[in-house]
Amino acid sequence: MNKELLLALLVGSASSFLLAGVSAIAGFGGGVLLLPVFTALFGLQVAVPVLTLTQLASNSSRVWLNRTELEAGIIRRFAGGAIPFAVAGGLLLASAPLSPLKRLLGVLLLVVVAWRRINPRPRRPAASTFVTVGALSGFGSALLGSVGPLTAPFFLSFGLVRGAYIGTEAACALTMHLTKTATYGAGDLLSGRVLLLGLLLTPPTLAGAWVGKRLTDRLSEQLFVRLVEAGLVVAAVLFLIGF
Questions:
Q1: Other Cβ atoms closer than 10 A to 227
Q2: What is the count of structural domains for the chain?
């Protein structure tokens, strides 16, 4: 293993550990922040499928750690919309213009946060809404690697917090990542290098998720929601500046 690859793996492992912990606390953020890191280390066409593999590990661990608080009905509806649109997005990955999509997502996130501040007690969305949320998320996630910040306000408005929010959101994301992995494989994006990198970056990802779960259990519901909203603003800024 050459020094350049070893350095890339060390940076990638440290980033995966730290940002898996962030995801375990806020329910998102790891994918959004890891994408620019992985892109700088490995290039975009490798970064997106590698990110998907690490997100498989991260979300699987969050589902397991919060398994007693999952909302099965929400997960089923989300998956019904996410799976077909994740396939469509995965097939478009090689040719889609990603920069305009990222900036649009950044604007939407800022609008959502402002709306939550103006209307701190939004009406609870119907469970059926999550079919549409899943469809938009599946398509966007296949193109951008992760759109977790976009789904967060819907889970919060539904009344999910802490373990119920973290676990349910992770289970929904897991359906997308499994679909994307299969689609990337069909499109020859899962090269030997991608699979090796995904395997090597999985252990630090699992460790970060475990540490994050321990911290989440100590947060109050009010502080938890504020942290999630702060994460939405950070994610929006990153999208707007082109990360």
A1: 17
A2: 1
